[in-house]
Here is the input.
Amino acid sequence: MLHRLNKITDRGVYGLGIGVCYIFLEAALYAISILVFYYLVRGLLTQGMNWTLVASLAALVVFFSVLRMGLTSASYKSVMIEAYKITSNIRVRLANHLKKITFGFFLGRNMGNLSNAILQDTNLLDFLLSHIFIRLVRDIFAVILLLAIMAYLDLHLFSISIIIIMIATPFFIYARKTTIKLGSQRFVTVDKTDTYILEYIQGISVMKSFGLVGEQNKKLLYLLKKLAKQSLIAEGSILGWGMLFTLTIELGLAVLLYFSLSQQAASPQTSLNSVFFMLTYILMYLAMFDIMQYSLLGQHMLNAMSRVEEMFRQPVLDAPEKPQTPNRYDITFSKVSFGYNSKEVLHNVSFKAEEKSLTALVGHSGAGKSTITNLIPLFWNTYSGQIKIGGVDIKEIDNKDLMNLFSFVFQDVYLFNDTIYNNILSGRKEATREEVIDAARKAYCHDFIEALPEGYDTIVSEGGTTLSGGQRQRISIARAILKNAPVVILDEATTALDPINEAYIQDAINELIKDKTVIIIAHRLYTVMNAENIIVLEQGEIVDHGTHDHLVSDCAIYREMLALN
Amino acid sequence: MLRENIEAIKWLISVSKGNRLFLLASIFLAILGGIVSVIPLIVIYEATDAILNGTIQGEFIVTAAVTTASFIVLKYLLLFSATMCSHRAAFDIQCNVRKDLLEHVGGLPLGFFSQKSSGLLRKITSEDVENLEIYIAHHLPDTALSMAVPITIFAILFSHNALLPIVLFIPFLIMVVALSKISKIRKEHVQEYFDNTENMNSATIEYIKAIPIIKIFNVTVESFSKFNTAIKKQIEITSEWIKLSSPFYVLFKSSLDFVLPLLMFAMALFIRGGVNVNMSTYILCFILGAAMIKPINQIYTSSNLLCSLMEGARRVEQVMDNKPIAESAHTRESVESFAIKYENVSFSYGDKTVLDDINIALDKPGLYALVGESGSGKTTTAQLLLRFWEIEEGEISIGGVDIRELSLDFLLKHISFVFQDPFIIDGTIRENICMGQNDVSDEAIVSAAKTVAAHDFIEQLPQGYDTIIGAEGSRLSGGEKQRVCLARAILKKAPILVLDEPTSQVDATIERNIFDAIKRDCSDKIVIFITHRMTAAVNADKIFVFDSGKLVDSGPHGTLLSASEKYGRMWELANRANNWSLGKGSKFHAA
Here is the structure.
């Protein structure tokens, strides 16, 4: 487990080693204290001791106990602090890793779910590493040392104990298996219920208008009751197996009692050893039960770790060995094929988008338009064929430099939870205030920004009501204008905005694309009538390309689309 | 700590309704189990005594073993039943709290549900309520057991020797003191910790959502400061917390380790004083000291859990504290007509005026359009009809009756509302259109789908109307989802239809067909629709033009075109936008 952990953090888990050493010493002193007590009692029974010797032995054990206290304290402190550092390091590494994962990983994934998974899993790692780990280690040491004492005290009884433990172990294995099996079953129900609860809340108005609130909603009731029932069965059977394990071991006490009493009745010399044996056995199984609890908890940690590992396994973009930078910005696709999972969606696509020209991608939904625009900035790197910018293979360009070549205008606008000014500035950090305002003017934002009470310092809140969709879009265009990247990739909006906003956005886009290489996904053919090159896609293949006039006369599919527009 | 426990139990009693018996049984059985658990140790003591005194007889051997075994089994039976009772209660309480919560939010004004609050609500209903389980199912019987065991132990020891219990009692006292100190420190830090965890969570979510932009603009993680600050702060807070509480924690953990040396001192004292104590009594004391460790550790763990229980309870209560929409004492269930009237309606959101003196009268069935820029008040105007929010001034009436006099059920039954974001449930298309109405014929469903031009694309799906859509199923485009929602609203057969940008993602040709069909099939209804497409607005019998929260003009398209400056400009811009094309031939530049 630690080995796996070591792979996902670059702090190294060896920092935990110091704490483990402390706790080992502590456990050893614990075992020695028991032995001291044993010798004391033996001494008192055989030759009688004077009170000063007893008192000084007591003082010795006090000293041990104080030492143990110090060791425990040092160990917990170092492990907890180290654990928090490790998990923080994992969080930061994970965040960095996510940035390097091919972009496509994020497309079409529910970001809320993704971040929840990351959060919960790292929190779980955090908790178990800081709280459970060291206790588990302590109990394992204790069990080993106590078993050693038991072997020393009475080999015959020791072998009986080992047999008892062996009989009990299958129950523990069952408990673990049940935890994994029923746990994951329950997880599915929890997930389903969760999804429905969210659906219910988000659609509360629809639910209300169809009389599906609370008790009246049969599906909700069914799911909630099913979850309760399933949880009870899961917990009950895990508890059942776990208890059978501990019960068997505790019953061992009765067996040991029987044997030691019989032994005693036969030969009276070994008396004290069998008494201390049972005592040690009790101490041993108390520690053992804790081990069981902790290791069942640890199962959750392993699951969480698997999910984190899974995230780390996502392919990342390799940095090119000799990065190159293009000095012109035409884009060529030669024989590019690409599929998500096993389904190929682009077949052998070749085209060239000339520098500073307008290239439009048209076709029905699912024809592969957005796949093409996602491949140009290397959002996916698992395609075959070659994509070049200015004659340089995009895989040979350093990813940071590559990103600097593009401005994107998508329908879904993401703005940082920051001021409007900083949002625009993020296009090019070294820009001056004048340049930021100039970009805002060009994107027709300046006036409405100035009209806001806080002006450029207004905070853009997530899902906030301060800005309308059209205004957010214009700010994102201002950001792109400031960035002044040589290639602009546009996805024409499909959702209608109000005419005033729409007109502003169109003007802003015209500013943005001046003297740029432009690739646009067009939904209205009218938008791209003047494009130098219109590429008509159908089911992942290019069926024809050329100017509007050419396509009108030569391409039946284009004419059909035109008629529908 | 005791006070927190009492608070928690009070809250539990208030939500446990049918489960109180199970909770009581669980506590009772656990206490019994705790007492029984000590008995085998007493037998061991008797055996020790017999061994050390050499007085073992044949039948004693069997009796001792059998007694030990049977009490161990009994203990397990008791504890298993106790835990099952508490689990049964826990899961049932969870189910009930969730049901109550979801029932309660059903009665809240719809304005309560912004995007953010629905995420929060989900978290409360799912995760926070989930946390209740650990406390109820595990903590409750464990606490009962943990109280019972030390008391039994002290009682037994006391019966053997009046002085020896002190050996256990001193460490026990130290533990209690340490524990109360730990919970005091926790109380001081836990809020900050929770708050920062929340910050860290939201920073993470924000970071992940922003990854596309972060990649494109080359922002590094280190510079994504909020995320990093929260993580660093988390380390600081926890380190500080650990630093403060760890001495007490160690004191707590280690105090029982002093049972042994104290016992040895006691032995020394007794020897010196010539007091004759049985050796087996010392050993009993040692065993009992060890047996106390586990239950007492449990108390520590449980007091940790208590925190999350109370946190969850607090959140649940916060939601429950939101007042449902006030229903007047004598609500009316009928109206003479469905004529809608807004009289001098004003509304503000915080200190921002959203609507200012709106007057609208819709007397007869027909198509009514609300147009205007984003944020001009169209959506709010429509939502007020369903009492999403309570208005401050003026009156909205249906058939001459103030909507506040009408029951909510009545309103919801007679108004079909289609929202901007199409709402699709996980289920088949049929289920999505019917929404729980069982008595709908296939013809009615198909005819509703035809009205909104959805029939054709539905037929093309692999399983037609039985195709599963939603998160798990086939993906529909935005425009297709919108049409499913429209079909649902049409099928409901309410006399009033309110459509908020119902066709914003549908292309122009299909939109035209939909409006033609609505005009034909809904001629007996009052249809209010909000739109940004001027080509759609043209369909309306009357258009209402909004500008910054005011209703500036109204009338049919023809009249407005010449009479309304605002409308005229919108029409002109819309035409311009529709004829817009990129590239060198672009005809329009800055407005």
User: Anything to note?
Assistant: The first strand of chain A starts at residue 331 and ends at 340.
